[in-house]
Amino acid sequence: MFMSKHPLTKALSAFQLEVNNQISFFLKDVPRNAQGSARKMAKAYCGAIIMGHIYNDFYEKLTGRRSALDPLDYANKFIGDMTGTQGRNVIDIVKDAADGEGLRLTEKTAKRVQAEKEGEDFKPIPSDAIGNLTKNIGGQVPFVGGLLFDGGRVPIQSAFINPKEVLGTAADASNGTITKGQRNEILRRQFGGALAYAALPFGGAQIKKSIGGLETMAKGGSYKQRKEGASLQFAVDQENPLNWIQAGAFGKWALPEGQKYFDGGKALDPKRTKTYEALVKGGIKNTSAYQIVSNIQSKEKGADKRAAIRWTALPKDQQAILYYDLVAGKEDKALMDYYNVQAQIGKRKKKDIGEVYDCLSRMAEHGNSVPPKRNIIREMNLSDEDKKHIYMTRVVTSDGVAKESACISKLEKYGIKIDDYLSIKNKYGTLHNQSGIGSKQKKAEFDRWLREQGFSWEQQAAISEEFVFWGMYRQK
Prior knowledge:
By secondary structure, the protein is mainly α. The chain is built from 25 helices and four strands. A two-stranded antiparallel sheet has the order 1-2. A two-stranded antiparallel sheet has the order 3-4. A hairpin with a 2-residue loop joins strand 3 (221-226) and strand 4. Helix 20 packs antiparallel against helix 23. Residues 5-17, 151-156 and 471-476 have low confidence and may be disordered.
């Protein structure tokens, strides 16, 4: 086959050879076949480079790897690192054009997309761009490219054990830094590759690749063990039968999600991986859960994270999981823990935790401003007892708890509920802080407002006794 003179056969077979044979094709075969003709050499080089690039685009979609020498791809990635824009995969261009979406030749790089999500301008790092270019070119050096530059088309580095990681894992397991399960997973990954290559006469690498791909599909994603726990690199669509075939034939990195991860995707740290698993356990599709947690993880400010949670449009009890794990402070977590325990012992409904989250999240938008927080508590679909508990623990300062608790208890005896109390408190505060009018005028306005709210004379008297304006005295 490799000796065939047919131009199509020659073009395709050139990209199936080992790297040194491909280099030999460019440095020896092309000049020899050109017989000294510069025009023929230029034509052969251009054809081989273009065909190699198209072949790689197709092969990458199928297996997740680019197997042929590809100067165009190295240049494309370098331009992408420097400008934030790179050429698209030829297969994607053709597919979009066939679907009537127009001819779009370029796309933003993953780093540029991430920067824009965070509200920042893309800033190239020349040293990284040069380093990546060196790595891409160096990875094509015969035999040693895979070891020195983490490249090459023969993943020979998979056949070697990393002594540093093995010894470090054993030490961490012995002193309790990591669990036995984490230790076993790391050691399995280290020794599994070496055994696959060494123990079997042939096909070991393919067997390892197939098992890894199917295992990723079965788990719903690719995990990597860290000292802090399992970290989700990417989630996969288990409902797509083509993904199972692709993973079984070419391994997990051939999957579209695996390719996106390689193109600049970020793994979820162990803490956020647990959040992802909680969402999946709660009925959210794994790929949706991964996108949701990844999006929130990319936000830096608390306000942006809270907004991102609301934009998910998940049920409130699911949003509560995100808020607790990714946003809530110590005090909010303590309050949510209390309601979770109450739900577990049957004293509260499970949906109540969603309302509590909604209340805490909305109150956090107002910082130290108390009146809006009182209004938010009034609007919540919670019992009077729960509203009072949230108000006393998350709004009232520690030195005012005793005084306000006594006031609430007294007014409750007159049939004045917590919602009314919070309204009274806000109205009183507004008048109390108003400048330009005296205490008597404030008192008259306050009494008029109480009458408009429909309070009885007895209730008005009890309220007036508790809410006294400066310069006025409690009536005996």
